[in-house]
Amino acid sequence: MLDYHVHLWPHPQVADETDLAVERLAQYCESASAAGVTEIALTEHYNRFTKGRELVEGWWATEPNQDLRSYISHYFDHHATADLDRYVDTVVAAKAAGLPIVAGLEVDYYPGLMDKVSRFLDGYPFDVLLGSIHWLGTWMFDIFSEPVQMAEWDRRGTNPAWRSYAEAIEELAATGTCDVLAHPDLVKVTGRIADSGVVAEVEERICEAAVSSGMAAELSSAGFRKPIGEAYPSSSLLARLFSRGVPITTASDTHGMAHLADRTPELRELAAAAGYTALRAFRGRKGYDVELGEAPSRPEPPASEPGPDVTDSKSVP
Predict the structure, then answer these.
(1) What is the pLDDT of residues 140-193, one digit of tens each?
(2) At what angle do helices 235-243 and 196-213 cross, to 10 degrees?
(3) Cβ 11 vs Cβ 314: under 8 Å
(4) Facing residues of 278 across strands?
(5) Which domains does the chain have, with CATH numbers?
């Protein structure tokens, strides 16, 4: 099994760069191995890094809602403190030391800026990039601990919010920036479920976005720790993804070691029940399949085609 969504720092915590050490990453690998996970992908948030922020600085400035605009600006102030080069160098060193780890990043959708973000990230030796939708415009819809964010659910309505989420997924996938759709139906996080017809429409649009872009999708245990109380994606979306040939990774979305390899046996059962016999692993942004339950063989990208050089609250203190 794989855990292809691992963060170093809980959301409320300012990045502690003493965690950027091979010895620290070895502890993650040991803990994962004890839980039956043979490889992890370190996928810290793009917005944790000062260089990442510099590239998208002020993208929230046109938001007319002052409360939403102020919140997300403060969110970036709090989170964007770490050094991206040091992060990458540490993961590369961990790989060189033989640790079963791959270098990744979780990248949110910045409308109109993804070409710039993609070119910037191409300069780093990442193995896998996760694509995520955590906000619609500047509405951080999954921060269920904040009244300002939750009030938007009532103002916008559940069905429109789900459709806006689908549109954002489609736009992100179409940019070709990322390799995996992280927690693909995150819009259900608060337990607000759209009408059945809208759910079916949105799930089909998510599936088609993955198919048309060639992206894999993530099967994540994180939803079990949220108000929705189930995996991402839903069983119906997972079945739809399988029927269309979309490969999957498995993931905990842990922030720190607390939930590393969380519910690995359940994820394996869910994948197998949907029909999957393999998971998608990555090296140098190239995907390849490993048997469900087997260890990746750790191939390198071909020389002719080198790879490019409610647990963790997101509220801001």
Answers:
(1) 999 999 999 999 999 999 999 999 999 999 999 999 999 999 999 999 999 999
(2) 40
(3) yes
(4) 291
(5) 2-291 (3.20.20.140)
User: What six digits make up the tokens of 276?
Assistant: 């999957």
Residue 246 sits at the vertex; the CA angle it makes with 241 and 248, to the nearest 5 degrees, is: 95
Entry pTM: 0.93
CA-CA distances (angstroms) from residue 204 to 51, 131, 200? 35, 18, 6
Q: Residue 84 contacts by C-beta under 8 Å, 6 or more apart in sequence?
A: 49, 50, 51, 52, 124
Phi, psi of 202 (to 5 degrees): -65, -40
Q: How far apart are CA 290 and CA 274, in angstroms?
A: 17
Q: Does residue 74 sit in helix, strand or coil?
A: helix
**Residue 168: what residue type?**
A
Query: Residue 72: left (phi > 0), alpha (psi -120 to 50), or beta?
Result: alpha
User: What count of other Cβ atoms lies within 10 Å of the Cβ of residue 125?
Assistant: 17
Rounded distance between C-alpha atoms, residue 281 and residue 127, angstroms = 9
